[in-house]
Amino acid sequence: MGSAEIDWRQKVANKRETCCEAIPKEWRLSDELKSTFQYPLSENKNDFVGNETIRKSGILTEQELTITEDYTVSQLLAALSQGTLSALEVTLAFSKRAAIAQQLVSCLTETMFTQARERAQWLDEQKAQGKTVGPLHGLPVSIKDSFHVNGTQATIGMVAFLDETSTTNSPLVDLLLKLGAVIYVKTNVPQTMMTCECENNVFGRTLNPRNTLLGPGGSSGGEGALVALRGSPLGVGTDVGGSIRIPALCCGTYGFRPSTGRIPNGGTRICTTSGLKFILSCAGPLAMDMDALEIFCREVIDGQPALYDSTVIDVPWRRIASKPTLRIGVLPESLVYPLHPPVKRVLGEAARVLEAQGHEIITLDAAECHFEEINEVAWNLFGLDPNAAQLIAAAGEPFAPAILYMKQQAEALQQVQKSTLGNIEGLDRMGKLALLNTRRAGFREVWRKMWLRLNLDICLAPGAQGTAVPHDKYGLSPYTCLLNFLDYPSCIIPYGKAGEADANSTFELHSGQAAPPYDFKTLQGAPCAIQVFTPTMRDEECLEMTKTIDNCLKH
Fold it and tell me: Is the peptide bond preceding residue 95 cis, with omega within 30 degrees of 0?
């Protein structure tokens, strides 16, 4: 074992010990409760949500259980405003629940329980004087590890950043504080934040709280797991290829990817090369109720985010009236990226339910969607920046298995599929960028024309080829990456589960196809979801119509 390897392992051990000690002893799970789990957790099916493990821990009081389980975000804000709940008791309840979630599924990185308690007390003092700090007064908000909070670390699970402590807040953090929120925890991500898993060498692996055999998705996987365990009423993730929506669909939560630049995402930790801009990341919310997504977006955008972040598009939030009936386009299944049986089933069921309730369903033409070509261009764009790999190599840490699996999947496809990009390998880096950006602009124009010609209101699509899948086997993310490429706002709606209707369905991959492995017994009970989207900058319309669709599917 070389000295570099010893060095990084020691740094990791020190960091993990610090994180462990940050959880108060009275919030730690009993050995008796832990003895009921199936170990190793990542190799056995533990359902911490369905089994109500947090309730059974006895750590939360009945009032704290009520606060964390029975309130929507809107109801929490109303109770905080009316004074029937204090900021301190709400913050304490979610802090305790987040601490338990961490012990179950390893979803946290930084914890700020003491600072959060002090802020909550201050907010209550302001309230006692008749002052409301902002529209999110007293609401605990969890954030992805990539956001800086002064005095904490933003390592994004990479050894290269373990010696650095944040000296300022990210713009979104400052804005959330101005709006009255309480920032109390940061959440785990995969190595490089470019896989749909949630494991790194610093904080380890985050598990799916509904089935610990499965991954929680990524890269905002810690947020998805925490929100699903109701350890956070409202989480903030980021999304460059599906990183909000994939954890949402894997963990059974709602998740929204806004248009790029609507929500502040500047001043965060990145592992890409500064100044290289291809497909841009954007920040957005995850929650257990649909209205919470709109509350977050509306209040952040109404808070004049361009005053905090120069990367924000300074467009005010628009109030949109709901439409009684919608023209809904349906994205066809890709022959290259086929759908697992539960996903295919719930997508068809959703379309039938919506049509039965008076909405018009229009199946899009596969050739006009250019789905496979778009994903080829997207992955070539992502591949132009070697910085993340260089940071990993320089720190001496190994690559996470999920990165290697995704690379293998992409290479296998390349070997059997004919490229649509011509002699791109014969170009230098600038030539490649020019070609790829030109192709991207062309496909965005095709989609603009198609949308207008069909007079669509919104589109329905799978969020992924499968539900949550076994650890390190997610691979590519074509159905979410499409919307990052187009820069279309898109939302995940939880809908159904992998159940008996799928038990006898078979799934077989053929040459030229890629998909995660499918085994019904492993995936049984996993949450399913649908994805909906609208054209860029129509975030308000997307959320309003998503509420309409969500309500239809619930009845």
Answer: no
Do strands 182-187 and 458-461 pair parallel, antiparallel, or not at all (unpaired)?
Answer: unpaired
Task: Give the pLDDT of residue 4.
Answer: 55
Q: What is the pTM of this model?
A: 0.97
Q: What is the DSSP letter of 323?
A: P
Choosing from 95, 219, 232, 477, the catalytic residue is 219
CA distance linking residue 89 with residue 232, whole number of Å: 14
Cross-strand bridge partners of residue 154: none
| Span between the terminal Cα atoms of the chain, in Å | 60
Helix (H) or strand (E) holding 20: helix 3-21
Q: What is the mean pLDDT of the chain?
A: 96
Question: Does the structure show a pLDDT above 50 at 484?
Answer: yes
Which of the following is catalytic: 95, 166, 243, 259? Answer: 243
Out of 96, 144, 432, 497, pick the active-site residue: 144
Whether the bond between 40 and the residue before it is cis, its omega within 30 degrees of 0, is yes
CA 150 to CA 94: how far, in whole Å? 21
Distance in angstroms (rounded) separating the CA atoms of residues 275 and 156: 19
Can 547 be counted among the known catalytic residues? Answer: no
pLDDT of residue 504 exceeding 60 = yes
Ordered structural domains, the chain, with CATH: 11-307 (3.90.1300.10), 327-508+520-554 (3.90.1300.10)
Render pLDDT for 287-314 as a digit per residue (tens, 0 to 9): 999 999 999 999 999 999 999 999 999 9
Q: With beta carbons less than 8 A apart as the criterion, state whether 236 and 144 touch.
A: yes
What SS3 state is found at 176? helix
In DSSP terms, which residues pair with 141 in a beta bridge? 183
Known catalytic membership, residue 178: no
Read off the pLDDT of residues 205-233 as tens digits, 9 standing for 90 and up. Answer: 999 999 999 999 999 999 999 999 999 99
243 a catalytic residue: yes
Quick: pLDDT tens for 64-101.
999 999 999 999 999 999 999 999 999 999 999 999 99
What are the DSSP E strand ranges found in 364-470?
458-461
CB atoms within 10 A of CB 539: 28
pLDDT value of residue 416:
84
Closest alpha carbon to 552 in 537, 534, 536, 530? 530
